[in-house]
Amino acid sequence: MRIVLGVSGGIAAYKACLVLRLLTEAGHEVTVVPTRAALRFVGTATWEALSGRPVATEVWDDVPGVAHVRLGQEADLVLVAPATADLLARAAAGLADDLLTTTLLVARCPVVLAPAMHTEMWHHGATAANVRTLRDRGVHVVEPASGRLTGTDSGPGRLPEPEEIVAAALARVPEGAATGRRADGSPVDLAGRHVVVSAGGTREPLDPVRFLGNRSSGKQGYALAAEAARRGARVTLVSANVDLPAPEGAEVVDVETGLQLQDAVHQAVADDADVVVMAAAVADFRPAAYATRKIKKEHGPDASEAPVVELVRNPDVLAGLVADRGDRDRPFLVGFAAETGDDQGDVLQHARAKLERKGCDLLVANEVGPGVTFGQDTSTVHLLRPDVADVRTVGPTGKDKVAAAVLDEVVSALGT
């Protein structure tokens, strides 16, 4: 497995030598990327001798090889130990002023940071905010140990022991990431891909206490995000009013309304998305006007009828993505259609019409109704692709199995 070991400038840098030794003895290919400050504690010769590989700190090193991009692109894991308060701040801000921070920006593999600093620095509000930001983006920040620090000081902020750091880091890598398969033989076939998933149901506010919404629980979207992350993808999950724990490894962006969801999805797509799965139930309409105060019902003999709420159409997010993509083949677009069937046609007839109308690459038609799909742990879906005559039906089965089937279709279409 290809690992980038970042080392920032703290006295605990000497422990990174032991981390490096453990990783290389386990057979991993490790490239050490120290900061300029780290080299004041441990020199280049030590890192090169222990890793057997050249060491660089600047983006100007190996310019023809474009190392500041290549290292992050090719890595299966990026581990920074120690990660100082300064490194956490620069990573959270997205700065790219040396080889290590540019590598962190490029990396789409698991990223693990092992902080080490004085207790006061670890407890400072700025550091706490930076850690929250990084964790919200899917970075795994190891909790520091408590114990003896520099001098006579003692408390939280001590770098964990090398064995603990290595175990925590390797646990973040999908099984078989270097070989493309897990221990059970199943694939890690979305490694290096950016998958955007929308989940839940939007709420369109009418007044401070009322909204137009729907019954979507977000379970299917969350299952898709979890499965994509398990397959090695970098996952952005745009979550609309979902009360579920965040899937492991996914960056969650919380939204409420259809317009907010549209903006969040488009922003995520602009960040080099390879696949977009629109599993959220976006309200077709929203109130034309928002009442800043609760709408009261009138009382008495002269009370008028109930007020009339004027609605306007919400944008079709999936159709907008199709239009923005144009003739390009990325991102691969997956739409969801909740169908019941009616006098005009059954579920599949409506789904085929929607697939043609939407222009997406894969349509997942959900059979819905009282006690079916919404809020439930099982679903029945039909998978339709414009270039494939056969329809694949999955279920009734668990939403995790549906997620796996959907992503199998995606991987098949992508040819990975």
UniProtKB/TrEMBL annotation:
A Gene Ontology molecular function term of the record: phosphopantothenoylcysteine decarboxylase activity
Reaction it catalyzes: (R)-4'-phosphopantothenate + L-cysteine + CTP = N-[(R)-4-phosphopantothenoyl]-L-cysteine + CMP + diphosphate + H(+); N-[(R)-4-phosphopantothenoyl]-L-cysteine + H(+) = (R)-4'-phosphopantetheine + CO2
Co-factor binding comment: Binds 1 FMN per subunit.
Keyword Methyltransferase among record annotations: no
Pathway: Cofactor biosynthesis; coenzyme A biosynthesis; CoA from (R)-pantothenate: step 2/5; Cofactor biosynthesis; coenzyme A biosynthesis; CoA from (R)-pantothenate: step 3/5
EC number: 4.1.1.36, 6.3.2.5
Residue ranges of every copy of the Flavoprotein domain listed in the record: 1-170
The keyword Hydrolase is assigned to this record: no
Domain DNA/pantothenate metabolism flavoprotein C-terminal: 190-412
Positions bound to CTP: 284, 294, 315-318, 336, 354, 358
UniProt-annotated stretches for the region Phosphopantothenate--cysteine ligase: 195-416
Region span, Phosphopantothenoylcysteine decarboxylase: 1-194
Cofactor: FMN; Mg(2+)
One protein family per Pfam: DFP
Keywords: Decarboxylase, Flavoprotein, FMN, Ligase, Lyase, Magnesium, Metal-binding, Multifunctional enzyme
Function: Catalyzes two sequential steps in the biosynthesis of coenzyme A. In the first step cysteine is conjugated to 4'-phosphopantothenate to form 4-phosphopantothenoylcysteine. In the second step the latter compound is decarboxylated to form 4'-phosphopantotheine.
Family membership: In the N-terminal section; belongs to the HFCD (homo-oligomeric flavin containing Cys decarboxylase) superfamily. In the C-terminal section; belongs to the PPC synthetase family.
HAMAP family from the UniProt entry: CoaBC
UniProt-recorded name of the protein: Coenzyme A biosynthesis bifunctional protein CoaBC
Gene behind this protein: coaBC
